[in-house]
Specification:
- The complex is a heterodimer of chains A (79) and B (467).
- Chain A has 79 residues and is mostly helical.
- Chain A has a domain of 54 residues.
- Chain A has two helices and no strands.
- Chain B is an alpha/beta fold and 467 residues long.
- Chain B has three domains: 75 residues; 164 residues, no CATH class; 192 residues, Rossmann fold (3-Layer(aba) Sandwich).
- In chain B, strands 12-11-10-13-14-16-15 form a seven-stranded mixed β-sheet, sandwiched between helices. In chain B, strands 1-2-3-5-4 form a five-stranded antiparallel β-sheet, with no helix packed on it. Chain B has a two-stranded antiparallel sheet with strand order 6-9.
- Chain B starts with a strand and ends with a strand.
- The chains are: A mainly alpha (79), B alpha/beta (467).
- The interface between A and B is large, with 28 and 43 residues.
Chain lengths: 79, 467
């Protein structure tokens, strides 16, 4: 999955969450400042999840490569 | 049938109202609150929280009990009564912190059941002894993944900011919190903090940035506001936010410098261990004879004699002292020894007034008075000499508190009083043992007296005369 794909997936996930979300409790003013911070926390957390997935992909890519190399190094047929 | 009376503090939440019928505490659930109430009730969340004494018990009873008002209630719930109603600004640091932690724990556990809390008022907590308990069953609402924590700002104003004021700035939160029942506003706390305090990641997230954004949001257009509303807080982030706050608050301590002169007062007081034993004996005799169901200890200091009275036969106790350090010590004592004792920060010369809407939303101390036993040790001279309140008025007030009790009179010859008079003129000619006894006998019979120290300290056990 490319970074672009991760972005699309997380945007889709947020859109789905949005469909489930009810309006905020009406009788208590939550305060705009607090809501903006929470919105940012939500976005950062979403980005971190995306990063983690992406990082996992890179790690897997390299570890798979180096694992393959080490197998080649020890190939007795090469001797 | 006795008529149901609506609690005067109960009008904000459209989900329901609290009523009293004599001693019974009832909570109606309105049409508006019904779907959330049914969802929470059927979620299985409450039974666990009630069983672990963290949320007050709830039992459904017939709405007909409300009489003519029955039609407005879809459900009627009954709660067990509490020994005493206290206000958050009367709590010490550790008490407010324990209520804050419970608020966060309830929220985190509720989310597992797809339930959230619609508000975060410290007034939704009461204490049984030193243990906090959540009393507003209708604050629980259905949660949907992505919902904001709408009560975050209120949590900050009611819990976090007062605790930070004390922990970071070394100022007891009580006077400010009392003057501002909605709590300590983030912009006010923010302007007290230095930039070095503000660069702390958590202060930034929960105080400085919300204030900054709140200010800039005033210029925002409606579409900007809609964009903010359209964002979400995923469940995992919500839980992480609560967990971070919990860890932070659990580590907040009152500043060392606030370890007051009073702390340890009982231990290294001006009088000898023999005198302390005389006082303890007298307290035991009084408490085991009278067995007060609710003892008020006015000027409780760290609660040494409250503890003795509770062990001797008093069932429940509330203590009052002006000094947060002393009350802090008493609170720790009550917790460590499992005493049914709630110590509060209250100045006897200026007891908590009625506050809020119509001055009746938060009841005055007088309106909450329910003592049938009283201890007032080393108090009278603080009021009569320290605050110039006429001796007969002090005695009348104390005896008015409870039908039986013990009052200590500290003579001018005592080093504590001498110290108080060292820098001022002695204008207290009427402050004498005979005048004290006459004032007591004006309202009560004297059951027993005892010299704690000959000609220096006298204990008087009174029994109030019926009017």
């Amino acid at each position: 999955m490319t970074a672009r794909q991760v972005g699309v997936v997380s945007a889709a996930a947020l859109a789905i969450l949005g469909a489930w979300t009810s309006p905020a409790e009406a009788y208590l003013d939550p305060g705009t400042g607090s809501m903006i911070v929470q919105g940012i926390i939500g976005v950062i957390a979403g980005a971190l999840v995306a990063l983690r997935i992406y990082y996992g992909k890179i790690k897997y890519f390299f570890s798979a490569k180096s694992a393959g190399k080490s197998v080649e190094d020890h190939n007795p047929d090469k001797d | 049938m006795d008529a149901a009376r609506r609690e005067e503090a109960s009008f904000r939440d459209p989900a329901g109202q609290v009523y009293r019928i004599r001693d019974r505490v009832l909570r109606s659930v309105s049409e508006f609150g019904c779907p959330d109430y049914e969802f929470v009730r059927d979620s299985g969340l409450l039974s666990g929280l009630i069983a672990s004494n963290r949320v007050i018990g709830v039992e459904e009873v017939s709405p007909d009990l409300l009489g003519p008002r029955a039609s407005s209630a879809k459900y009627l719930l009954e709660h067990p009564t509490l020994p005493f109603i206290s206000h958050p600004y009367e709590w010490c640091f550790s008490a407010l912190r324990s209520a804050a932690l419970l608020q966060l724990d309830l929220l985190a556990e509720a989310l597992d059941f797809d339930v959230t809390l619609s508000d975060a008022s410290a007034y939704n907590f009461q204490f049984r002894g030193p243990e906090p308990i959540f009393i507003d069953a209708l604050s629980f609402r259905r949660y949907r993944d992505g919902d904001y924590w709408t009560a975050h700002q209120q949590f900050c104003e009611q819990f976090l900011n007062p605790l930070l004021l004390t922990a970071l700035q070394g100022v007891a939160f009580n006077a400010w919190f009392r003057g501002s029942p909605e709590g300590i506003r983030s912009e006010d706390l923010n302007s007290l903090l230095s930039w070095r305090q503000k660069v702390n990641w958590r202060v930034l997230t929960h105080v400085a940035l919300p204030v900054r954004f709140q200010l800039s949001a005033r210029k925002n257009t409606a579409s900007h506001i809609d964009r903010i509303k359209a964002r979400h807080l995923p469940r995992a982030s919500f839980l992480q936010m609560i967990g971070g706050l919990r860890k932070w608050i659990a580590g907040l301590e009152p500043p060392k410098s606030s370890q007051s002169a009073w702390n340890g007062y009982a231990a290294d007081n001006a009088y000898d261990p023999m005198a302390a034993e005389v006082k303890a004996d007298f307290t035991r005799r009084y408490a085991s004879t009278v067995k007060p169901a609710m003892l008020w200890d006015i000027g409780c200091n760290t609660g040494l004699y409250t503890e003795i009275a509770l062990q001797a036969g008093a069932l429940e106790a509330v203590g009052f002292d002006t000094d947060m350090g002393a009350v802090e010590g008493a609170f720790v004592r009550a917790r460590e020894k499992g005493l049914r004792f709630l110590p509060l920060v209250v100045d006897a010369a200026d007891p908590s007034p009625g506050q809020g809407w119509l001055g009746r939303e938060r009841k005055s101390l007088e309106a909450r008075a329910n003592a049938d036993g009283l201890l007032a040790y080393a108090l009278v001279h603080h009021l009569s000499i320290g605050r110039n309140i006429p001796l007969p008025e002090v005695i009348a007030w104390l005896i008015g508190m409870a039908p039986q009790g013990v009052i200590e009179f500290v003579e001018k010859e005592d080093p504590m009083v001498r110290q108080m008079l060292r820098l001022r003129d002695d204008i207290f000619d009427d402050y004498r043992r005979d005048a004290f006894l006459a004032a007591v006998q004006n309202h009560a019979e004297i059951v027993e007296t005892k010299d704690v120290i000959e000609n220096r300290r006298l204990l008087v056990w009174y029994r109030r005369r019926p009017n």
